[in-house]
């Protein structure tokens, strides 16, 4: 009887907590980005997608008002900073000559506005005649330059095209075109799982259908040493960085043809942060200087663009934190029929060893398996037999 009473109390507590959760939270749509989510009825909260500070009023999500004024969104902070930078006269400097074009460029500057989701964004635009550039590469009207064709740069390009931007968007990257590059890159072909915020971002970009078709669906994690499963019921996928980039780029090219231009095998360095001037260098030694209405740095943690802007623009700061991680990647080339590619497998706890699949040459139905073995510090093997001995001793399930 006593145990039965405890059982009833536990059931009551569960239903009580469920009632409290439903009574104190509301599901709604963020007015900033349109993403559906759940937020508190009693206190302000931030949108998990765009960071907009929200509160619930009359069952709807609205911008949080503090002392009758809404806090600035990240977009508004960037707008105000850009406006301030545009009004600041940069120190005079000599413009570098282009080694391959053979012409100088004369330019002046004017402040222009672009309408955004939170109002107009002011910045400095360079006007004048570009250095010798072919008709094919010249973009008329306002033009946005994106530095880096990784997931961030491609996602931004796709988002701009999807918004119906009437100007041009050019994406530069020093690497090879994702479509022609080898599918397997030993330095970057590790398994990435896309869930949570990543899945919501892809939903916002309208590419869920393409990821369903072109990547491996993610169902959860199997922890073999503990005999446990952690299933994932929401949308999710696994793939390599290349798989992700190919899917995003194909969406741009096929759904919005002509809206985004991709230029690979080209390095792009910010020459002047005030005028949006970028120096472009191709793989055969050609150099070209171009000015854009907006330059966005999507060139990774070691961004040279952000470093240049921090050096030239007073008040611009960028912070980063480095979490050192050492690992060895092992390619599984046998007995993989025992593994389900829609699951990640924890094969060992210490050292941690996690196996997952990416697309093979035949796509999601032809998975290629890898296992990442982590280390606390840098670890080097003398040769392959030395690595095999270590793995057999510390993580035998891997082999």
TrEMBL record:
What cofactor requirement does the entry state? FAD
Tell me what this protein is called.
Answer: FAD-binding domain-containing protein
Q: Which GO terms describe its molecular function?
A: FAD binding; kynurenine 3-monooxygenase activity
GO-annotated biological processes: kynurenine metabolic process
Q: Which organism is it from?
A: Symbiodinium necroappetens
The organism's superkingdom is given as Eukaryota
- Output the InterPro entries linked to this UniProt entry: FAD-bd, FAD/NAD-bd_sf
Please give the residue ranges the record annotates as the region Disordered: 84-119
Write the record's keywords in alphabetical order, separated by commas: FAD, Flavoprotein, Monooxygenase, NADP, Oxidoreductase, Signal
What Gene3D superfamilies does the annotation carry?
A: FAD/NAD(P)-binding domain (3.50.50.60)
């Amino acid at each position: 009887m006593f145990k039965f009473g405890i059982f009833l109390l536990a059931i009551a507590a569960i239903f009580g907590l469920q009632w409290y959760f439903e009574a104190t939270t509301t599901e709604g749509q963020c007015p900033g980005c349109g993403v559906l989510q759940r937020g508190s009825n009693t206190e302000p909260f931030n949108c998990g997608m765009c960071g907009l500070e929200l509160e619930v009023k009359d069952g709807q999500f609205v911008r949080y008002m503090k002392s009758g004024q809404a806090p600035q969104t990240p977009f508004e902070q960037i707008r105000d900073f850009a406006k301030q930078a545009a009004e600041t006269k940069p120190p005079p400097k000599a413009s570098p000559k282009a080694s391959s074009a053979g012409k100088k460029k004369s330019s002046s500057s004017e402040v222009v506005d672009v309408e955004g989701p939170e109002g107009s964004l002011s910045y400095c635009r360079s006007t004048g005649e570009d250095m010798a550039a072919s008709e094919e590469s010249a973009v008329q009207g306002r033009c946005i330059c994106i530095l880096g064709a990784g997931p961030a740069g491609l996602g931004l390009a796709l988002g701009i095209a999807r918004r119906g931007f009437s100007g041009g968007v050019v994406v530069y990257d020093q690497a090879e075109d994702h479509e022609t590059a080898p599918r397997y890159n030993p330095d970057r072909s590790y398994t990435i799982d896309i869930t949570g915020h990543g899945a919501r971002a892809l939903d916002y970009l309208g590419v869920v259908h393409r990821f369903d078709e072109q990547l491996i669906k993610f169902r959860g994690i199997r922890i073999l040493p503990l005999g446990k499963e952690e299933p994932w019921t929401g949308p999710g996928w696994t793939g390599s960085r290349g798989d992700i980039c190919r899917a995003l780029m194909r969406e741009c090219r096929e759904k919005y043809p002509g809206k985004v231009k991709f230029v690979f095998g080209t390095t792009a360095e910010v020459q002047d942060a005030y005028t949006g001037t970028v120096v472009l260098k191709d793989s055969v030694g050609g150099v070209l200087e171009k000015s854009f209405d907006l330059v966005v740095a999507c060139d990774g943690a070691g961004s040279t663009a952000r470093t240049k802007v921090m050096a030239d623009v007073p008040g611009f700061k960028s912070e980063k934190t480095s979490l050192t991680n050492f690992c060895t990647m092992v390619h599984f080339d046998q007995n993989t029929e025992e593994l389900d590619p829609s699951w990640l497998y924890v094969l060992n706890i210490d050292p941690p060893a996690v196996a997952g699949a990416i697309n093979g040459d035949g796509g999601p139905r032809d998975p290629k398996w890898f296992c990442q073995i982590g280390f606390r510090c840098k670890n080097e093997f003398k040769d392959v037999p030395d690595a095999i001995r270590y793995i057999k001793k510390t993580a035998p399930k891997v082999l």
